[in-house]
Specification:
binds beta-D-ribofuranose, alpha/beta, Inosine-uridine Nucleoside N-ribohydrolase, Chain A, binds calcium ion, two-stranded antiparallel ribbon
């Protein structure tokens, strides 16, 4: 039986590749895609979500969620993802409809309607939708099987401030709620995703698939890469969010430690930092499997094989 997941996301080129990877994989049943404000404002993230579903020729329902963080003004990342959030190839406006239900209601209703421990949440953006659902309906928290998310950093530092990674920084109060929730967490931080860099050969391989999906993925990663290459001097672009879906498909591609991770919500200097007790220097209880390594070749082999199916 396929594993039931809900993808909570702010597409984003790397979110888009993650969604395609999930939709291409029969081991996963994507119950819904819940959009949140993040890389770009909500009207664009929900639209981009529908565009990606349509590109994959699927009918996965897409819901719009929270348009602003719990307590703060939205910070966006057009400087990385472009004005639309999905800059690269020009795709037609989607005809795939937006669901009328709010994403938070969908999360609550779906978790209540399924047996406890059968739904995995996959957050790829700020944690506002998930935290709002947990606050509004505390009974659903214990029904979540697992949360596998992209966010944070330890040795790699931050990418939006010296201390904080974008997804956690945008809504640190929401992240705090999720990290304290008691739900088993698997975290893909920058320590992993900055090792999951595209290579020129891989991008050209995508292009030479000769499919609309291959063209789109190649153009998105080309767009995304210009920023990271200039900023980090790195070889390619880090495909952050697909690491979450790859973990569900092949957990052995990743290595990490089960440790305590807490979120800084007060200090102006380090707001949104994931304070990860990697060396276990405190007696704070472990709450997350915090990843540190990835088999880059295996990861890109998996992506090539799956995206080639769409
Ligand atoms: C995260 O922030 C976004 O820009 C990406 O989509 C990813 O989820 C990386 O820090
Ligand atoms: Ca994202």
């Amino acid at each position: 039986m396929p594993r039931k997941i809900i993808i909570d996301t702010d597409p984003g080129q790397d979110d888009a590749v993650a969604i395609l990877l999930a939709l291409a994989s029969p081991e996963l049943e994507v119950l819904g895609i819940t959009a949140v404000a993040g890389n770009v404002p909500l009207p664009l993230t929900q639209k981009n979500g529908r565009t990606v579903v349509e590109l994959a020729r699927k009918d996965t329902p897409v819901y719009a969620g929270c348009e602003a963080p719990l307590k703060r003004k939205l910070v966006t990342a057009e400087h990385v993802h472009g004005k639309t959030g999905l800059d690269g190839i020009a795709l037609p406006d989607p005809t795939h409809p937006l669901q009328p239900e709010h994403a938070v209601d969908f999360l609550i209703d779906t978790l209540r309607a399924h047996a406890p421990g059968t739904i995995t949440l996959c957050p790829l953006g700020p944690l506002t939708n998930i935290a709002t659902a947990f606050q509004r309906a505390p009974d659903i928290v214990s029904r979540v099987a697992e949360i596998v998310l992209m966010g944070g950093g330890c040795f790699e530092g931050g990418n939006i401030t010296p201390a904080a990674e974008f997804n956690i920084y945008v809504d640190p109060e929401a992240a705090d709620i999720v990290f304290r929730s008691g739900v088993p967490l698997v975290v893909m931080p920058l320590d992993v995703t900055h090792k999951a860099l595209t290579s020129r050969a891989w991008v050209e391989g995508m292009r030479s698939l000769g499919t609309p999906v291959g063209q789109a993925v190649a153009s998105w990663t080309d767009f995304f890469e210009r920023f990271d290459t200039a900023k980090y001097g790195s070889e390619g672009a880090p495909l952050h969010d697909p690491c979450v879906i790859a973990y569900l498909l092949e957990p052995a591609l990743f290595t990490g430690r089960h440790i305590n991770v807490e979120i800084e919500t007060q200090s102006p200097l380090t707001l949104g930092m994931t304070v990860a007790d990697w060396w276990r220097v405190t007696d704070r209880a472990p709450n997350a499997l915090f990843m540190g390594g990835v088999d880059r070749e295996g990861f890109y082999r998996l992506l090539t094989e799956r995206l080639g199916r769409l």
